[in-house]
Amino acid sequence: MDRFVTVWNSFAGVAGLGADLKPVKKFENRDKAVARIWKALQRLNGDTESFLRPLRMCRRRRGVAS
Fold first, then answer.
1. In the chain, is it the N or the C terminus that has fewer CB atoms within a 10 Å radius of its CB?
2. Domain region containing 51
């Protein structure tokens, strides 16, 4: 569940996702976490590259295949 919190909190202040996304400390359960994250991602309106670029760079630094 920590990864969901990390992903969600990385949305705060990202252009295209809206300013109404507030950081969280935890989610009630996995289903609610996935639903909220998916809803936020759908707001990108096809501009996923500008959002995914920093995530890919972070994964490469950690040595995780994308």
1. C
2. 2-62
